[in-house]
Amino acid sequence: MQLAILAGFVVAGLAPLLHRGFGARTPLLMAMLPAAFAVWLASLWPVLADGESLLLEWAWVPGLDITLTFLIDGLSWLFAMLITVIGTLVLVYAGEYLKGECDLPRFLVVITAFMMSMLGLVLADNLVALFVFWELTSITSYLLIGFHHTDPVARKSAQQGLFVTVGGGLALLAGFVMLAQAGDSWSLAVLNERGGQLTGHELYTPMLLCILIGAFTKSAQFPFHFWLPNAMAAPTPVSAYLHSATMVKAGVYLLARLHPALGGTELWEVTLSLVGAVTMLTGAFLAIRSINIKLLLAYSTVMALGTLTMLLGLGTEGALVAFVVFLLAHSLYKGALFMVAGIVDHETGTKDVTAMGGLRRVMPRTAVVACVASLSLAGLPPLLGFLGKELMLKSVLAADHYGGLILLLAFTGAFLTLAVATIVLLKPFFGPRVETPKTPHEAPAGMLVGPALLAALSLLFGLAPGTLDTLVEVTVNGLGAVEANVHLALWHGINLPLLLSMASLVLGLLVFRYWDGVRRRLAWLDPLIHRGPERGYEKLMAGMVWVAEWQTRCLQNGYVRNYLVMTLLVLLGLVGHALLVRHPLDIEMSIDAYFHEVVVAGLMIAGALAACVMRSRLAAVAAVGIMGFSIALIFVLFSAPDLAITQLLVETLTVVLLVLVLFRLPRFATLSAPAERWRDLVVAGSFGTLMTLLMLSVLNGERLPRISDYMVANSQPLAHGHNIVNVILVDFRALDTLGEMFVLALAAIGVHAMLRFHAAEYDAGHGQSGRRGNNG
Amino acid sequence: MESLMAVTIGVLFATAIYMMLRRSIVKLVIGLMLLSNAANLLIFSMAGMVRGAPPLVPKGLSAPAGAVADPLPQALVLTAIVIAFGVLSFAVVLVRRAWEVVRADDLDRMKDTDT
Amino acid sequence: MVRSGTLILSVAARLLLPLQLLFSVFLLLRGHDEPGGGFIAGLVASGAFTLYFFAYGRGALSKMLKVSPRDLVAMGLLFGVLSTLPAWWMGEPFFTSQWWTIPVIDFKASTPLIFDIGVYLAVVGSVLTAITALVDTDHADDSRD
Lengths: 776, 115, 145
What we know:
The complex is a heterotrimer.
Chain A: H1 2-22, H2 26-49, E1 54-56, E2 59-61, E3 66-67, E4 70-72, H3 74-97, H4 104-123, H5 127-145, H6 152-183, H7 188-191, H8 195-199, H9 204-218, H10 227-230, H11 236-245, H12 248-262, H13 266-289, H14 293-314, H15 317-348, H16 359-362, H17 364-378, H18 384-397, H19 403-429, H20 445-463, H21 469-478, H22 496-513, H23 515-521, H24 526-555, H25 560-582, H26 595-613, H27 617-637, H28 641-662, H29 674-700, H30 708-719, H31 724-732, H32 734-764, H33 768-775
Antiparallel strand pairs in A: 1-4, 2-3
Chain B: H1 2-20, H2 25-46, H3 71-102
Chain C: H1 7-30, H2 38-65, H3 69-82, H4 85-89, E1 99-102, E2 107-110, H5 111-144
Antiparallel strand pairs in C: 1-2
Subcellular location (chain B): Cell membrane
Protein name (chain B): Multisubunit sodium/proton antiporter, MrpC subunit
Family (chain B): Belongs to the CPA3 antiporters (TC 2.A.63) subunit C family.
């Protein structure tokens, strides 16, 4: 499975090649990938239905206890299923939506990579692996929001989404580290069994707050909600997939996943339920304020995410059941509605709901789909959305903390959602026919199949909620509730939730009736809940740029010497302080050298000093050469044959290199004033003294056990090599050597590029050297 | 011997820093060479200097008979020598390019990005 | 600046090149057991090629090498990375060394050896890239001045 996901990334990379071969049919081909995953997941269902969960283990970095183990239980199965099924439909839809787009291959690469990251995220059992996938979704989402990269608005939104989610990601990483420390494991499956140990731990509060920031930024909770509507700059298939059905649910997923480990405390319940409820209300108000169909849907997504967070915060068995049902219902109808919005936009050429109407006559099939999906959004029977809303209201009524406040917020959210649903449905599709920039036609089959299927599922599950019983039960059990016994049904008799539902229906319709007036009246809320957080973000970014400019002006003023002197003084200060003050300086000088060794050391010193005072370039190079060869001698004398050979060879090549270049370079000139030279002499002298003292005190210090003892002892038995130095290079520490090979390669490429650029400049015939070229 | 090397290394570092603080770009390159040599020597001698016991396992044995020189700093220094050569060639070419474009030997005249 | 061709240099380069290359391969192969190894062998080989290059010029060198030095760097990196994969195949952590004995000549082949060959190629490639690039632009300047 792990390999399959990694292979998915490879397939993503192959999309441009496929596109060359299959052209416009490539998206259909790529859709096979998530479809195959969906089939595989479906085949696991019988095991999960028995209440088992699967742990697919695969060591990744065993030395650091990082594994790529996948945990498949009800919760991750549900998410993975949504990701793959909606992913398949979105790819089919995108094939039609982006037909003729020249960047289609790029789109396919990124969205497939996103799909795989998201799948990895929900299946990962190890915190590190989960975090890696988490960040991958942020990055791919950035690329998708900025898909129309020539549009400055899209670029800005993409950047905003990236900063907010990745910034939250940093907090999340800190939270994960604390979590792993407190729980003494990186595995989610293990951590979830140690709930008591974690909630009682002294790090619990900081750890929870860090994780919450990560989850809230990802799932666009108040006050981080502002990036999600801006992300609507992405092509509609992306909005349908990332910003409604999958990525924004990653935060919610994480909270649900950690619910058994971290949930159940008052801090958890109060924070989650209040933030969730506030987000819900914010989203609902902002949705009412919008006239852009995609924005309407985006804000209603913010609202739904708030609802989900709130339900997790309540944490009772009923709330968790509501969570699962609402999650499923939302993914189905929101995916469908976004795709419908895409169709409407595509066919009419506008996103403004007030500028369209009567579309049901020209696109009847789309209208039917829109009808079903938005009734589910509105929470009307017999759709799955109704079920979700009923369960939500029921669990809110049973809330422990701040029950009244949350109920008020939830009820307001519910009737505003109903108003949004009516706006999305009635404005474009009913009423008198309005002229639009493009003449609309019925959507092609490829674009209709996705939303139609999702809407059909909403209806099906709504009519026969019993089919979901096992799924919900398995998922809720995974969320840490006691053995839940779930029986979903549409009709519960006349009770309080039903009455609230009916009240919200009436209020919602009223809001719709007086929408224009309501919208204008609500304008005063804008600065508070919309502009406010976003302005804060902008101020923060501007402040960062200002600080960066200020410190660049101060520290990086363009004089190489100043950089060096500053670095050296800091080093001198810190190391000198540690050396002289923190530890008593304990130095023992002992000269136990043979005469010839002293001569070699003297040669080195002489060579180095001569290199400084020589007035001729060649003499200076020769002096450095003498020093280099003396070092080779030291290596010979002190048991380092490999080093001696290397040093000799490199010295020789260095001389060749310098001779090639040196005479193209200016002669030495005395540029500094005497005072400057004295200053430099003092800095250099004190640095040299520091190094000498440092080395002497290290030599006299306590010797810690050497790691090389292991290498000496195991070089032959383990690595079958007699030359220990070479064994270290190519076996024990081969990864380091690989890195060094890359450094060499980079240096070579750098050299080549600089000289190539030079030649190109001559060809172009501009710049100073270019002019010389033309004259010559 | 280590004490003697400590003094030598100190002098090497001092000369390297002095040369790197000059305004002439060619002197900067020479300073760089001195610095990398000094650093290599520092790592090498810090681990203790042993005469006549190279870190080799004799044929037929599975571990060296007696104490040998520490192989780890040797491995570090070996790659460092080669990398230093790569970096030096990069620096030399950079200096040469800079000289060709700016025609100035003085680092103080190269402080703007657009000259 | 560099003129190809005094007689002694040409003859020496032609005679020394095969010897030096042979020596470098020798150093490479014995590196695991005695002083030598990829870095040293690579430097010896680059020295040999540099000498040949000064004696006969760029054209002769590229004719002999068949590939550009930059491609050697890339090949070196590729060998380095490839040598990490067999362990994966065997189900062991990335980079674990694998040993095979080739029957007839009783030669120990191993992933560290492949890795060392990668080091060798990367070193030869980078050194030659630097030196040929410098000389190339010298010639460009000379022909223009």
